[in-house]
Design a protein that fits this description.
By secondary structure, this protein is mainly α. It contains four helices and no strands.
């Protein structure tokens, strides 16, 4: 490839590339760049994360005791499968705890976000009359 061809290829790639956006004609109406937070939506997602954590805790742990017991018995009988089953049991327990923690983190973060946005809304509402008075004084 000659130098001129390389430069033209770079120019063509640059003109075709759009990152994180639609082409201007494909937006289909007005675009509102403001962040919109709906309390009910955040609450619903937080509830779903909490429910998922509860289900994972209940359903993901139902075979723990039986698996540990089987691994112990197989090891006592001198079978290598007992050690392998114990390793799988330990890995499952660790991954299950990580998943439960992640669900709790999501739920807690959404609760926190809801509280912060509610405070922000209260502050804006409280500051609004002051700004109108200030405009009248000017």
């Amino acid at each position: 490839m000659a130098w001129d061809e390389w430069e033209q290829a770079k120019k063509d790639a640059t003109t075709r590339m759009r990152l994180n956006q639609l082409p201007p004609d494909a937006r289909g109406g007005s675009v509102n760049p403001d962040l919109v937070v709906h309390d009910k939506v955040l609450g619903a997602i937080g509830d779903m994360a909490r429910e998922l954590r509860d289900r994972v805790s209940r359903d993901g742990d139902h075979a723990r005791a039986a698996t540990a017991e089987a691994a112990s018995e197989l090891t006592a009988d001198g079978l290598d499968l007992g050690g392998a089953m114990s390793a799988v049991h330990d890995a499952w327990t660790t991954k299950l705890a990580t998943l439960k923690d992640a669900c709790a983190h999501i739920s807690n973060h959404l609760d926190y976000s809801r509280a912060v946005h509610a405070k922000d809304d209260q502050k804006v509402a409280a500051d609004m009359p002051v700004s109108r008075i200030w405009d009248a004084i000017k």
